[in-house]
Amino acid sequence: MPSPAVVLSTGPSGRICNPAAWAALTAGELPIDAVQAGLMAAESDPECIDIGYGGRPDNEGWLSLDAAIMDGARHRAGSVAGLKGCKNPIAVARKVLETTPHVLLVGEGARKFATAHGFPDEGPLLTDTARAAYQKFLAGEARPTFTGHSHDTVGCCAVDAHGDLAVGCSTSGLDFKLPGRVGDSPIIGSGLYVDNAVGAATCMGMGEQMMQVCLAYRIVASMERGLSPQEACEEAVRALLRRRAGVSGIHCTVVALAKDGTSGGASSYPEDVYYRSSSADDGTVCVRALQVKVGDVA
Ligand code: GLY
Prior knowledge:
alpha+beta, 13 strands, 30% helix
């Protein structure tokens, strides 16, 4: 039975990612190409402060970017972590998927691979806004925060009319992070996961917490057991809060998309939204992710 085509994106920068991915999907591109197109649009936009060119630097003043992409139809993934000198890490992650037998390239190796595939080294790449934020960090007026809403990520899931799925995730990570710090976004099963027979999921928030419970894999596995995307998202946030009970102020927002085009989203925070595009939505809509409260975890 044909599925309705749907695209979901997390985070404030999902407002840029989702319409670009939806335009590509409705133009007949594959879900993986649509996800890449959406994430590249957000990565290239200097106003998107959580991803790509507009992102915040590490504590040495360098943009160091993480991204991953996974194709449901082939069950193949590619990712990069700690990539410097490049605005579009999702395009490099896609090259890893398409041209190597590997899944994840990091740091200097990722940089060399990017150069070899035509992505020139563009240096620290800070926008004026990011440079001003870094000056505040150097002056002691800003610091990396491990609890609360400290940074966002753009995760994007797409399903086409054939029921084929893809997912991608891109982030500049924790603001002013320790050089070498990597969060959940480029880790398959943590920041993103897709099973073409079931659905896709992706996460936004504090990677240190989410990557210790393989959150995106958990959501897809719950959907495989019969939970709806909404139920699976709520169960995953509840499970995270239960397992990290000693940690206060965990920020975690998840979205999921099933093969049949149904979708859902949940958050540990009250205000987080995600973006959804489908023909039923008549374009792109902003949806509040249902908050899972600490009291819900018992
Ligand atoms: N969720 C992105 C990160 O923690 O780096």
